[in-house]
Amino acid sequence: xxxxxxxxxxxxxxxxxxxxxxxxxxxxxxxxxxxxxxxxxxxxxxxxxxxxxxxxxxxxxxxxxxxxxxxxxxxxxxxxxxxxxxxxxxxxxxxxxxxxxxxxxxxxxxxxxxxxxx
Length: 118
Ligand SMILES: [Zn+2]
Ligand SMILES: [Zn+2]
Ligand SMILES: [Zn+2]
Fold this sequence. Notes:
Layout: E1 5-6, E2 13-14, H1 17-20, E3 45-46, E4 53-54, H2 57-60, E5 85-86, E6 93-94, H3 97-101
Antiparallel strand pairs: 1-2, 3-4, 5-6
This protein binds zinc ion (ZN) (3 copies).
One zinc ion (ZN) binds next to loops.
């Protein structure tokens, strides 16, 4: 980790958070600039909304997500990989992000689906 930071929306890499924040991001749904991916480096990255997996953040950014309530693109899950994932709004747990994405949440104020806690 340490020596590179990645944008969670487009997968661009920069040497520091401060250099990243000075550039605009074409994929960020609600802002203009890149936003740091604040999770571990992985072999696979999972979308927190639909559970799709990609082998890099930049490949993830090339596809649209039909579950993300905030924007059109996938958003990487930044927490650790777990044997079960818990919704941060209602506390329901599922054994994968993709199975969680198949159910609606009656407590999420921002959208219809569960959102995994980290
Ligand atoms: Zn970006
Ligand atoms: Zn997705
Ligand atoms: Zn929920």
